[in-house]
TrEMBL record:
<dbReference type="Pfam" id="PF05347">
    <property type="entry name" value="Complex1_LYR"/>
</dbReference>
<dbReference type="InterPro" id="IPR051522">
    <property type="entry name" value="ISC_assembly_LYR"/>
</dbReference>
<feature type="domain" description="Complex 1 LYR protein">
    <location>
        <begin position="7"/>
        <end position="64"/>
    </location>
</feature>
<dbReference type="InterPro" id="IPR045297">
    <property type="entry name" value="Complex1_LYR_LYRM4"/>
</dbReference>
<comment type="similarity">
    <text>Belongs to the complex I LYR family.</text>
</comment>
<dbReference type="InterPro" id="IPR008011">
    <property type="entry name" value="Complex1_LYR_dom"/>
</dbReference>
<protein>
    <submittedName>
        <fullName>LYR motif-containing protein 4 isoform X2</fullName>
    </submittedName>
</protein>
Length: 91
């Protein structure tokens, strides 16, 4: 993989993770992060430049979807789950 292509993929990976961490709903957030990591790990050994470009284009579309869903989720936000509100006990 060319250096510029590798940098582009890493930037895209970071952007997808960063945007997924903005999901308000815990289940969506953890699912998105897990799927992104799994997909990138699954395709890390791809060598064909055409296939790499197709995967990059798909990831860019998916990033747009994630951004839209985050915005929609912010418009219709809900209360946090019990698992998210765990505070450290005061001593």
């Amino acid at each position: 993989m060319a250096a510029s292509s590798r940098a582009q993929v890493l930037d895209l990976y970071r952007a997808m993770l960063r945007e997924s961490k903005r999901f308000g709903a815990y289940s969506y957030r953890t699912y998105a992060i897990r799927r992104i990591r799994d997909a990138f790990r699954e395709n890390k050994n791809v060598k064909d430049p055409a296939e790499i470009q197709a995967l990059v284009n798909k990831a860019k579309r998916d990033l747009g979807i994630i951004r839209r869903q985050v915005h929609i989720g912010q418009m219709y936000s809900t209360d946090k789950l019990v698992i998210e509100n765990q505070e450290k006990p005061r001593a």
